[in-house]
Amino acid sequence: MEAWMTLVLQALALPEFGLSTVFIVALVSATLLPLGSEPAVFGLVKLDPALFWPAVLVATAGNTLGGAISWWMGYGAEIVVEHARHKPTEHRVLGWLERFGPKACLLSWLPVVGDPLCAVAGWLKLPFWPCMLYMAIGKFGRYLVMTSALLWWFPGRFTP
After folding, report:
1. Cα 153 to chain center, whole Å?
2. Model-level pTM?
3. For helices 38-47 and 52-85, what crossing angle results, to 10°?
4. Contact present, 27 and 66 (Cβ < 8 Å)
5. Is residue 78's pLDDT more than 80?
């Protein structure tokens, strides 16, 4: 598995593909696969500081689309599980999400719990477009803060 991942990362090398790499890495990292996209965004911005806003916006779009994929996976999983069980699922976390509704998707940027949160929102059949809006707001904020902070901590242009 590590050899496969190394090949994928080499194929998506930042200097060659730039924003498309950031989009794909951000999309994949928003699914349930364990991958972080902040290093890709930071690396591209360090290589070309003029790409700060395009990188943040492309990463937000990719990460939000990945959240949508997780939402649809949760939606499909709920249908399959409920069909097999023939009884509703009740948990404290599900009740909390139902109470907050799509606004809970603002927390989709959180590590570890954010991506499953998108899937659970689909499971609960929370309205798709409001969920996408709140996911996009939360993910945009994360990329803006993380990339700005990393640029502040590591000033100067990177030259390979």
Report:
1. 23
2. 0.69
3. 160
4. yes
5. no
